[in-house]
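Dear Dr. K.,

Following up on our conversation at the group meeting, I've run the structure prediction for Septation ring formation regulator EzrA from Lentilactobacillus raoultii. I'm pasting the input sequence below exactly as I used it, so you can double-check it against your construct before we proceed with anything downstream. Let me know if the numbering doesn't match what you have in your notebook.
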Amino acid sequence: MFILLIVIVVVVGACYLGFVFYQRRTIKMATSVYESKKDLNKIPLDDEFALAKKMNLTGESKKKYGQLHNKYQHYRNQILPEIDEQIKTVKEDGKGINFIKTRSDWQVANQTIQEADAALKEIQAGLAQLYDLNKQHQQAVSELEKKYRHLREDILNQNASFGPSIDGLEKMLADIEGTFDEFTKLTKSGDPSSADEVLRDLNTATDKLEDYMKRIPKLFLSLDKEFKVQLDEIHDGYSELRSKGYQFPNDQFEMALNRLHDQIQKNLTQLAKLKVEDVSASNEKIETSIDHLYSAIDKEFKARPHVEKATKMIGEYIQHVRRQNEDLTNRLQVLNQSYVLTHQEIEDNHQYDRQITGLERTYQREIEDMNAGNAIYSEIDETQKKMLASLKELENSQKELFESIVDLPEKEQKARDALAHFDLEMRHKKRRIDNQNLPGLPDTYQNNFAAVIREIKQLNEDLNKAHVNIDDVSKQVIIIQSDMDTLEDRTTRMLDDANLAEQTIQYANRYISSNPEIASASVKAQNYFDKQFDYAKSLKTISEALENQSSGVFSKIKKDYFDTKVVLKKRNGQADQDESEEH
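The predicted structure tokens came back this morning:
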């Protein structure tokens, strides 16, 4: 019972303490709202409204001032009392124990104060804008007065540089000054909002006038002096060149000059109407046309010395390729009697002749035009460049043709030398074979030997024809040389096999009585040698049987044979050299 009493006392005490803490917190919340409301009163809007009222605003500015003032009165008469009521509600709610309602009322009061603060700042910004705009416009009045005074002075002082545009510029300035008067009146009457719209139009028109005053003098100078001087210069240069016999392609100089003079007059008329953009674009086209005319005169003037310098050289060059082609013709006629010309040499030579004839005609026509004073030197200059390229190409083609035929006799002689060499080599091979006293020759070898003989015979017949085909006989020489090399290898291999087989059979005879295998192999090898003339197979048969009897025996026979052969070859080679030196 005592413990329960203690618990009750503790709970009651805790509730009391909580209530006291809540009341203090509520008082603190109410105080913070009140302080926030006091901050609103720190914005000196009454003073700022009084300052704006002294500006004697009218029109749109006065209307805007009235809107701001009504908004401020709404704040003072409705929003401020509402905030006071909300603060009072927060304080009274704090005496009770409805925590949720107290906090909700506090949040509403804070939200209202924030909205009021935003409204006050908006009102303050609007008043500042009216004040600043009025101040800017008053400053603009002073600056524009000075600018227009200077512009009028510039127009008067530079009157001549504006040419026909002067009246338009003066009218433009007068219109701007009228707009400026309207702006000044609105500014002084206290209507900065309406004045601001006029000021934007005024600045745009002023910028345009200043731009025209900068650009027009240059445009007028080009039209009044520069272009005319240039056109007169072109006319004089053109007339002088024509008097000296110069011609121009598609000559329309007089028409072009007249057209440009007309365009200059049109541009001056447009300039009087202040069509500055149109005149600027048209002046650029006039400049381009003048540049083209200058370029045309300069091109003809520079082309003539080139043409006169190149004319003699080209004439000599044409004569040179003509003589060279005639030499080729004569040489081809001679060669054509002895050789078959297989690469269209004669046709190419005729084609060169036709090209040279065409160049001669063009060259002669240009000479006649120059002598008659009808030459367009720029066109002749281009033609001469092409002629020089054609002559160079012709000369190179002639050289290539000459090089392809000049060595035909030499190639024929080489083929004949090769024929003599082949014949000698074949005789030498036959002697080598005869000296071996072989029982016969294999059919394949005889066929190869006979084939080479036929090739040599065919080469001899082709070289003795009335018209020798050098390409064909040159190919035959290459083929015969290859076949000769192959036949030489086969001859050497056949003779080596025959000699080795013969020596090995003789060596094996010592084993015939004691070794049936060698005796049998010897009979077979001798049969291959004497009957079938298969010396390779004969050697293989006896050498394998001998190796089976005694390993290494055949290798020694083979080594001794080739060593002896090397010695004999060196001896024979030295003998041949000594005999050659004696002769």
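Two things stood out to me. The two ends are 163 Å apart (CA to CA). Residues 12-20, 579-583 have pLDDT under 50 and may be disordered.

Best regards,
J.T.
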